[in-house]
């Protein structure tokens, strides 16, 4: 294991995800510790920790690619991450609408339905 | 034809594309005037002309979805558009690198190769 | 909002979907009224309301693209729509079989399983 | 080799493709005679030779799946096949326009550009 | 029906799948006996029964294509098949890790999660 | 830069690719040295250099994912790599045939055409 890259990844994950989400993600360690190391060190350490794009710009990229490839389970987690790093609900909705013209309505509609659920949970958490 | 939407679309296209590119796009009118109207009125009028995201944020979405779906002919045109609306080469390269983790290296490598060509042409145009 | 396009879209949706399905779709209005307007005005108003193809031919296109892109939630709704606009179960099954050669068996098998469920519900509704 | 299936496939191919196109396809025999047999016996013999859908309905399915998966080389050949089995240019254009809402504009635009080329070649052949 | 091809397919399926899984697959017969025949005769008879690759090499191909196209329901069944024909858990995990670089982390992560579940069920079955 | 990972990657690339191909790949260094480092260190260093699968098993995975995602430019390079690490032409053809049932004929046909070209070049190089 490459400690600097892994530590950078862990730090990026703390900015993006709640403790509960990170706990869920760590389940990967039990199945494949090597893939877990790559996710943290490469995915979050090498990629999210880079300069040149802000975390909110990175989440625009992430939301768009997940919508385009129909990866809706991961989209749910990154919709919350997008809110966490400062994208507004209006901006997230706008990313999905823009995608409609590029990937077609079926994926945009499915993404918007999930966004509606995530926004609702987020409001409930903040009103507690 | 719905004039306000079409005019909004034409205006957005002027901000995004050079006169030469727009001329090439208009070839669509001869094959299907109806699809041409939808491209301008819906694609650029209804989508690109909206508020909530800047044109440079919209191009981040567009580049990402084109890389993810492997639409490399359209990517070439939008790499130039991304430069035109103010994204730096560094930011564009960063979008492609971020995508590598989400769509895999083959598409990221192909996208970066095309970006290299577009950046070279762009430098030559500006040094004239 | 562009009333003629929106009204055309609503009329097409009435031919395609049951009242219950349309009611479910309208949930989109609460999350993003703008995407809802695009779905109705562009998706159903501009596209489904056009001439040149019948609604049953349009549903052949729709089923095929949804199977190909693996959009199985939307497929369920359009399998019912295909029956509503007059495609026979035999024709729908045949579309899925034809797709097997073009998109591979995994997606064809998944589509056929959903078709089996939709056909069963449809028979139960008609025997009431 | 299964003669009845292979002969049925050859017959379907004669209805779909010009002699020149079939000659080109046969190049597969030199690389992999087994894949060639599957293409003819399964692809055209088992699938295109079935009842329940007409050849022109089958080409609507084929064009749609090829546009959706971005298989533009194969699309070119099947645009010509679609004309050969009786779809009008207007109907083909309409299939592509309908797809725009389901797969996004980039693939629809690319498909329409190829359709424009195929229609032009077709007109030149008929005016000879 | 073509008996030799169908019988070859049934034999291959017996090597790949448990009786319970095959029973579930046969549900297809009630919806579309023709697609069922193609699955057995073409999918398993023509393809899996061929020489040149072992069944465990074939399952490497199958797992990879299912991960790449995001066909996760089918992946579950073939993860079990991969164990049945002799791939080790370590080799299966390695296929998924290799895919991460080619299709991106979202699909690799989803595949690994399902593999974790299948491996757990498999251990429980063997400890009975 | 992380020297051990980069060196491992360079070593794997020497086993997979001819000097000429590696020279072409290095063009990436001029466009984005960071992506180049990731390709070598992560793609080839972290992934191809791992145990648990042989290089020829890894190329089966690679060919399959490239065919499935339609990445035909990268496929060409990896068809040659597959021969270099010891897969026979017969095994490569068999991977493509197996894919036909999982991704459909259009992509299998396109892959086989490219394989035919690569095999021809390979024979010419060996007869020199």
UniProtKB/TrEMBL annotation, chains A, B, C, D, E, F:
Name this polypeptide is given: 4-carboxymuconolactone decarboxylase
Highest taxon in the source lineage: Bacteria
Cross-referenced InterPro entries: 4CMD/NDH-1_regulator, AhpD-like, CMD-like
Gene3D superfamilies, per the entry: AhpD-like
UniProt xrefs under Pfam families: CMD (PF02627)
Ranges where the Carboxymuconolactone decarboxylase-like domain occurs: 33-115
Lineage: Bacteria, Bacillati, Bacillota, Bacilli, Bacillales
Single GO MF annotation: peroxiredoxin activity
